[in-house]
Amino acid sequence: MVEDAMGSAGFVMDRVIGIDLGTTNSCVAIFEGSAPAVIPNRGGYQTTPSIVAFADGGKRLVGHIAKRQAVTNSDNTVHGAKRLIGRRFGTPEVRKMAETVAYEVVRGPEDEARIQAGGRSYTVQEISAFILMEMKRIAEDYLGEEVRKAVITVPAYFNDAQRQATKDAGKVAGLEVIRIINEPTAAALAYGFEKKINRNIAVFDLGGGTFDISVLSVGDGVFEVLSTSGDTFLGGMDFDNRLIDHLADAFHAQHGIDLREDRIALQRLKEAAENAKCDLSFKKAVDVTLPFIASKENVPIHLQQEVTRTLLESLVSDLVDRTIEICRATLENAGFTPSDVDEVVMVGGQTRAPLVQRRVEDYFAKPLSKGINPDEVVALGAAIQGYALQDESVDALLLDVTPTSLGIQTAGGGYSVIIKRNTTIPVQRTVPFTTVHDAQAAVKIVVMQGESPRAGENQHLGDFMLSDIRPAPKGVPDIAVSFSIDADGIVNVTARDRDTGREQKITVTVSGGLSEDDLARMMDERREYEVAERRDEDVQRVIYGVESLHAQIMEILPAAEPSIGSDRLHSVMKSLAEAKRSVSQRDVRELVHNRGQLQQIFESLQSVREAR
Ligand code: AMP
Q1: pTM score
Q2: One of 160, 168, 183, 343 is an active-site residue; which one?
Q3: What pLDDT score was predicted for residue 359?
Q4: 313: annotated active-site residue
Q5: Cys-Cys with 406: which of 96, 121, 246, 419 at CB 3.0–4.6 Å?
Q6: What digits encode the pLDDT tens for the residues 121-133?
Q7: What is the residue with the minimal CA distance to atom 16 of ligand 1?
Q8: Alpha-carbon distances of 507 from 97, 432, 475, rounded to whole Å
Q9: Which ligand 1 atom sits closest to the C-alpha of 237?
Q10: How far apart are CA 544 and CA 442, in angstroms?
Q11: Which helix H or strand E contains 418, and what residues bound it?
Q12: In whole angstroms, how large is the CA radius of gyration of the chain?
């Protein structure tokens, strides 16, 4: 174990986990020995639902346990948070999301989307942090040591705000995010790692909420992304919604009741639709059965409908078409035709659908690469990257690109591109700025990401204020503004007065981002929660001890009873009753006292029994 953790330089390195923070499911992996491996959660599952729920009494549930209670607590069960991260409240994507979820999406003070659940509002970063904390814990349980560092993956198409928000979520979760990498790049890394190949790989990634396609050239340990594109609002959830609408419309036509208006019914319908969709990847037809889904004049109504694969495929055909359209554009961007692609790697749960596989195979005119688990490959790649960043001797150089162009707003609402999309990152470009008035002291630079020539149609990243400009006639100050995109895909802007060599002061207001104060508060809350949780676990452990002693005593008591006097029996019964009471009151001191008592009673009853 110790040797595994040693770097080539001989010092002990921090372990870095790789986390695939998915819309629907998340997965954590670690590099051990000579290969990456997925770490199963407590229930033995390789992936954990990206679901956070707030139960009565303020208890927070994450993963399978949150998913299981979703039907009865849908208002306080948050899923799909990744679709909201780094987004403004008023955008069409957020509005659409708000319509389809049972929890409330609200406007935050910075105009960002927030989540209202469990009696308070949370930033999306916090919700994501709760999922990341769970992944961290899964890794810590497995490794038996604290984990501090992580590589987290994001869709290639995530913009600056979404990346920054994901990084902040990591911070809130108590993780140092040493790198953000793109999901398809991670998949290619896992696929091509230590294989002696020289090939062009297309990674087709259709997950629960997002679609990404990347084309990479892989060879000699270098993974170079040539072109990437995607849609952050196209995924398995949209497939589910088609089936939900179909089932609800049919039910409505038959019974005049719209199940979408009843939150609990809708939640049940959602689950049933997703299950049916997944089953239809392996079966030709399934029955969707939801007993007691509604009632009319106090008579229960059941939903019972057969769905065939053919029907499902007709409902989602245009969604699959969209993915192929995006593939076409991405290949064109890389100057490729489908025949230039040697391997097609499929990632994301939704790629299990036979229709998706068929269309992708048809488009690329070759069979899909086999032997890849679409749910795990991204986390495995993140673990490899984490390891490679710690140990320079590992052959894995990632050359990723920026998925969208970066530019600034120009006069009259125009947009001037500074760094073009698909440029390899990290990258830096310097642009000269000057003043338009005599003695002008400040210049505002509005930075955005997008491809539209109209500024208003692009994603507003933030305002950068150049201030304290030395007094001079207009046009004289020569300020070099450098725009850089780091290896995480995150934008930084710096400025320097070229005449004086002085760093120019820049104030940045990133839209919807977390302030340092916000971050500090959330990190404090996390620590408090962790302390409370640990205390809770300790109490639970003592309760478990008391309960199991209670059960053991009850088991041997009938046999021992004839040999002990009635006074002794009475006192045993009293101790048992006290133990029960302290379990329900969760009083640690009492519990520990009771545990001691029960232990003594158990031992003495056992010796009585043995003596007989
Ligand atoms: P991911 O974000 O990669 O975890 O993908 C989750 C999405 O894959 C969800 O929308 C799931 O419903 C979907 N999915 C999982 N298994 C299957 C399957 N067997 N067939 C079709 N879709 C699936």
Answers
A1: 0.83
A2: 183
A3: 98
A4: no
A5: 419
A6: 999 999 999 999 9
A7: 349
A8: 33, 18, 22
A9: 10
A10: 66
A11: strand 414-419
A12: 29
